[in-house]
Amino acid sequence: MAHMTIMRWVQVKGTMSFEPMINQQHFHTFWINGKAWGTYEQRVDPKTGGVTSDINVLYGNLEGVSVQTKQKEEALSAKN
Question: Are the CB atoms for 52 and 30 separated by under 8 Å?
Fold first, then answer.
């Protein structure tokens, strides 16, 4: 079975990262960790190649958690 994404949750470091393996131009998935759950979406602008990533928290919170993608290593802001 092929993986759709690689999602890493390192609780000790407080980091969560995503690396979509399919549909990288417009990727959407559900995620869950020990603190919260929600959705992650990634879009690539076809003209600039810029990556936009959004994380939506549906339950819990990501306080103290850094969320990263392979394409851009800066932290994303969570939408509660």
Answer: no
Using DSSP, how many helices (H) and how many strands (E) does the chain show? 0, 7
Residue 77 has which token pair? 């802001």
Q: What is the pTM of this model?
A: 0.69
Phi/psi at 2 (5° precision): -80, 145
The count of other CB atoms within 10 Å of the CB of residue 62 is 20
Express each pLDDT in 55-79 by its tens digit: 899 999 988 888 877 654 444 445 5
The CATH number of whichever domain residue 31 belongs to comes to: 2.60.420
**Boundaries of domain holding 47:** 5-79
Domain count, the chain: 1
